[in-house]
Amino acid sequence: MSPINSINVSRIFSKLDKNGDGLVSLDELKGFLETIGINSSQEELELLVGKTSLDSIDFFFFYDAITKANIKESNKHDHRENIFLEHDLLKVFRVFDTNGDGFICCEELQRTLSRLGLWDEKCGKDCKSMINVYDKNSDGKLDFEEFKDMMFAN
Question: Pick from 53, 49, 63: which is nearest to 11 by CA?
Answer without folding.
Answer: 63
